[in-house]
From TrEMBL:
GO terms for biological process: pyridoxal phosphate biosynthetic process; pyridoxine metabolic process. This is glutaminase. PROSITE patterns: GATASE_TYPE_1, PDXT_SNO_1, PDXT_SNO_2. The gene is pdxT. It is an enzyme of class 3 (hydrolase). The active site is at C45 (nucleophile), H135 (charge relay system), E137 (charge relay system). Belongs to the glutaminase PdxT/SNO family.
Amino acid sequence: MENPLDGLVLPGGESTVQGKPLSDLGILEPLREKIQQDLPVLATCDGLILLAENVKNQEKRYLATLPVTVKRNAYGRQLGSFTTAFDFADLGQVPATFIRAPCISEVEDEVEILSKHQGKIIAARYRNQIELSFHPEVDKSDSIHSYFLKICQTK
Ligand code: GLN
């Protein structure tokens, strides 16, 4: 990784699909190192699975830089996808769309919980890693992306 990175977005998708090339192309290790050196990361949905140290319903681990346990597909199948809104950190209400989303089921003490929905942790922050169960990019608000950009600019 020769070019300096200001930040990294790990988007939604399918963690098995995104994880395989990261692994096969030898990208996991250099990325893990950058994140451990505090590269800002915004991880949404599948990205949260790639970052998690533990995944409840699968053995495979990827970056494992985030001391949480996640549960894949915590809201059921694709047809169970939904959009809602809730308070996020100090940003007030943000819209959020969940698509076969994971949730965070356990966090270590140093992880800050940013939002919960229906009793499940759906947004958290650990150092410069922001992790979301949902997709902030499919709704009209850009407040979460602005929040992330501020973290990148202060690094
Ligand atoms: N269900 C996917 C997985 O477990 C994540 C879905 C998403 O990113 N929208 O990898």
